[in-house]
């Protein structure tokens, strides 16, 4: 069984590319982030025609998450308990479209789009830390309630775990994604029992900015990964980052990460 995560960076612009990739790579479940559309705008028919059911959580703008599955899609949950709200300026605080889950056979699959943080002195940074902390708290409760739970937290985490996961750590000095509080918040989720399932099979970069020839120069970062519960981690048999999917006209600036269970 293959479960993948991919920040598609606008599904309306890339639905045919995404579905073709899923079929070509024999993907059973795909967690998508940054769909950038409302639920009624999602190109659902492209997925249904290929045999995939889809769970949606989109509010337009730059957020939006979804799960496509050909092995079942039941018990859909929008957001997680304790998920923080965010609002700025005249915008009232609200739970953003950043988390969705569904049961795919015996597996609870989450698609997560962690807040970017923007800058260390921006309110969005505090929101990011609170968001990761809330996810850690609820994740620990899930595992305490059921140590045998089959859970995968798949997504764009917007945290570079270590200096080995970025082409040039100095480039990010004093910026988000590499700060000690962010890395500590991510590590707390791992300490709660979730494992980075792509390691040690691959530690390849998953994101390359469109600007300054970052992709041809392989100046990337690893911010997309799948964290599995202990019981589900035992089922991991391999993983890869499909760098080829980042190539070509109209590609997302992220590459998909695939884990074989």
What does this structure look like?
The protein is α+β, with helices and mostly antiparallel strands. The chain is built from five helices and twelve strands. The protein has helices at residues 11-24, 44-49, 123-145, 180-191, 230-233; strands spanning 2-7, 29-33, 53-57, 65-69, 74-78, 99-104, 107-113, 151-156, 195-196, 224-228, 238-241, 257-260. The strands form two sheets. The protein has a six-stranded mixed β-sheet. A six-stranded mixed β-sheet has the order 5-6-7-8-10-9. Helix 3 (123-145) packs parallel to helix 4. The longest helix has 23 residues, at 123-145. It is globular and about 45 Å long. The termini are close together.
What proportion of the residues is helical, as a percent range?
10-25%
Distance N to C terminus: 5 Å
Arrangement of strands in the largest sheet: 3-4-2-1-12-11
Mean pLDDT: 97
Task: Please indicate the percent range of residues in DSSP E strands (runs of 2 or more).
Answer: 15-25%
Number of strands: 12
- The helix count comes to 5
Order of helices and strands: EHEHEEEEEHEHEEHEE
Which properties best describe this structure?
single chain; 261 residues; alpha+beta; six-stranded mixed beta sheet; 12 strands; 23% strand; globular
What's the topology here?
Layout: E1 2-7, H1 11-24, E2 29-33, H2 44-49, E3 53-57, E4 65-69, E5 74-78, E6 99-104, E7 107-113, H3 123-145, E8 151-156, H4 180-191, E9 195-196, E10 224-228, H5 230-233, E11 238-241, E12 257-260
Parallel strand pairs: 1-2, 7-8
Antiparallel strand pairs: 1-12, 2-4, 3-4, 5-6, 6-7, 8-10, 9-10, 11-12
């Amino acid at each position: 069984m293959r479960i993948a995560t991919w920040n598609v960076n606008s599904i309306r612009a890339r639905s045919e590319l995404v579905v073709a990739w899923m079929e070509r790579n024999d993907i059973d479940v795909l967690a998508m982030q940054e769909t950038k559309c409302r639920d009624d705008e999602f190109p659902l028919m492209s997925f249904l025609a290929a045999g995939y059911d889809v769970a949606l959580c989109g509010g337009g703008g730059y957020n939006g998450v979804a799960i496509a599955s050909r092995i079942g899609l039941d018990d859909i949950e929008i957001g997680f308990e304790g998920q923080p709200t965010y609002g700025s300026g005249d915008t009232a605080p609200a739970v953003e479209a950043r988390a969705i889950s569904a049961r795919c056979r015996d597996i609870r699959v989450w698609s997560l789009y962690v807040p970017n943080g923007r800058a260390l002195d921006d309110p969005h940074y505090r929101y990011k830390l609170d968001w990761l902390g809330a996810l850690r708290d609820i994740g620990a409760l899930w595992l305490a309630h059921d140590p045998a739970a089959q859970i995968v937290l798949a997504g764009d985490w917007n945290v570079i775990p270590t200096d080995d996961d970025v082409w040039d750590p100095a480039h990010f000095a004093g910026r988000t994604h590499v700060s000690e509080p962010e890395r500590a918040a991510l590590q707390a989720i791992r300490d709660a029992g979730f494992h980075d399932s792509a390691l040690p099979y691959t530690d390849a970069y998953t994101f390359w900015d469109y600007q300054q020839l970052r992709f041809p120069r392989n100046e990337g970062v690893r911010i997309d990964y799948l964290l599995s519960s202990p019981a589900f981690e035992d089922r991991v048999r391999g993983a890869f980052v499909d760098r080829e999917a980042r190539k070509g006209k109209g590609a997302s600036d992220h590459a998909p990460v695939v884990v074989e269970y």
